[in-house]
Design brief:
Strand content: under 5%
Structural class: mainly alpha
Number of helices: 6
Number of domains: 1
CATH superfamily: CDP-alcohol phosphotransferase transmembrane (TM) domain
Distance between the termini: 37 Å
Number of strands: 0
């Protein structure tokens, strides 16, 4: 239970309240601290899986906790960025697409696990995750840029919003792929 990969995964879960607190009524420094924490959490997401596989430390707890940690972090950051109005207007639709897909795929995975059917993560789903991570990180950083008045870095917000829409598009495609695979087992 207390292997390094599992501890890294749990650290992501414990980092979420800190991330939320940093974004709550944040000024430029709070956003910057949230961005640094978000990047560290993203690195642990990569490291826990790499270490578990490369050192033969894959555990049932890790398999259970890793996707939960990812979803908790993504959902929390999206909700906070909507709360802070860093995601607003039509861009909320992209954020909702991502949230709804995460909930749907989680439910589908749980249903299929009961049937002992595994749903492997596709390369396209990994790209979706990469765009999600980039978009949310860029939007957090854009909050710092905006609050600090650093107009020369205003382009960071566009990177975040474009990446958010790319992630939403890939979310629809990969969500449909998972749903289509799951429907075969729903007689």
């Amino acid at each position: 239970m207390f292997t390094l990969p599992n501890l890294l995964t749990m650290s992501r879960i414990f980092a979420v309240p800190v991330l939320v607190a940093l974004l709550w009524n944040a000024g430029w420094l709070g956003y910057l601290a949230a961005f640094v924490l978000y990047c560290l959490v993203g690195i642990t997401d990569y490291l826990d899986g790499y270490l578990a596989r490369s050192r033969g430390m894959v555990s049932k707890l890790g398999i259970f906790l890793d996707p939960i940690a990812d979803k908790i972090m993504i959902a929390s950051v999206i909700v906070m960025l909507i709360f802070t109005r860093d995601i607003e207007g039509w861009h909320v639709i992209a954020a909702l697409i991502i949230l709804l897909r995460e909930i749907t795929v989680s439910g589908l995975r749980e249903f299929l696990a009961g049937l002992q059917v595994s749903v492997p993560v596709t390369k396209l789903a990994k790209w979706k995750t990469a765009f999600q991570m980039i978009s949310l990180g860029a939007l957090i950083l854009a909050g710092s840029v905006s609050h600090a008045g650093w107009e020369q870095f205003a382009w960071v917000e566009w990177v975040g919003l474009v990446s958010l829409w790319l992630a939403a598009g890939l979310t629809l495609v990969t969500g449909w792929d998972y749903l289509r695979a799951g429907l075969k087992h729903m007689d």
